[in-house]
Amino acid sequence: MAAETRIKLANIITRLPEEAVDSLYETACKMFENHPDDEKPCCPFCGGKAIVRNGHKCGKQEYLCKDCRKTFVSTTNTLMANSHQPREIWEAVIDDTLSGDAMVELIHSARCAGITARYVLFDSWFSAPKTMIALKNQEHPDTIAMVKKSRTKYLYNGEKLNVKEIYSRNKKRRGCSRYLLSVSITVEKEGESIPAKFVYVRNKSKRKDWLVIVSTDTELSGEEIIRVYGKRWDIEVFFKACKSCLNLVKEYRGISYDAMNAHVAIVFSRYMMLSVARRENTDDKTMCELCFCLLDEMEDIMFSRSMHIIIDALMDTVMEYFHITEARLDEFTVSFIQRLPKYMQEALERKEVAA
């Protein structure tokens, strides 16, 4: 089977809703079971077991139910009912989709087209050890992803533990910290391994629950990992708007890959045109020369300069209210800067070098 065909079908599956993918997986498991020769499936219409073979239809074994007198094949009343692809293709596509191989091939195609990225962000569907190791070793970008609370084992302090066991063996951060716990682990699969970092964060939906984010870039701080992964929310909002308001998927129900690509391109074009119109109606900067005339007296303060202004004001306030010495103030300043996210620390360092 051609790799291009497998990528196209896997791409279609990944665009289905989660419940549809689960249904497809369950159907495929039943379809690909190795039944003995004398064992026949139940009727999908009435559930009867009085089944006899009735020739073949589209290369598939057809059955006849003696109770309701209806004929059916192994894919009747499933998501694959209208598919003309043979069983071998569906086996390969589902295996690629669940293992993440199709995603690695798509990222490779994007990089060959000149699209570069430092991090690959995805949800828990693709955060299997095999996928993260393949991305790191083959394509080299680091992974930041949500991790399922499954039985998958990771190497931590010489022991193979799952995410729940790692969480239970460590002391959590108290107070209003952005995360509960940050630990270094090793991701292993089939003799290969890469270092990674787990960051446990609070689940805003359930106060007593927690979520796990993994990063294969171990130099990032916990705050930075959370900040970068938070950018996925913009993508989720984009797809939600396309599905709910711009008729993504609803306008086209076929299985033609080229037609589906055209449909997606049309929907995305609608979104871009609406985004441009929205900005022109709400952003004052789109008034061009008029905007610069109105805001000419306001100095454009760079981010690093803003950070220095805030810290200087904070230090002056501490000196005034707490009457501490210069030495204690310097210690307080160093401790405060070390607790800032990495990108803020770099901004302050650039300003000091420039000064």
Please explain how this structure is put together.
The protein is an alpha+beta fold and 355 residues long. The protein has 13 helices and 10 strands. It is elongated, with a radius of gyration of 28 Å. Residues 34-38 have low confidence and may be disordered. The strands form 3 sheets. The protein has a 5-stranded mixed sheet. A 3-stranded antiparallel sheet has the order 1-2-3, with no helix packed on it. A two-stranded antiparallel ribbon has the order 6-7. Helix content is 47%, strand content 16%. Helix 1 packs across helix 3, helix 4 packs parallel to helix 5 and helix 11 packs across helix 13 (342-354). The chain has helices spanning 3-14, 18-31, 87-99, 101-112, 129-139, 163-168, 222-229, 232-244, 257-282, 289-294, 303-322, 326-338, 342-354, and strands at 51-57, 60-65, 71-72, 119-122, 142-147, 154-156, 159-161, 181-189, 192-202, 210-215.
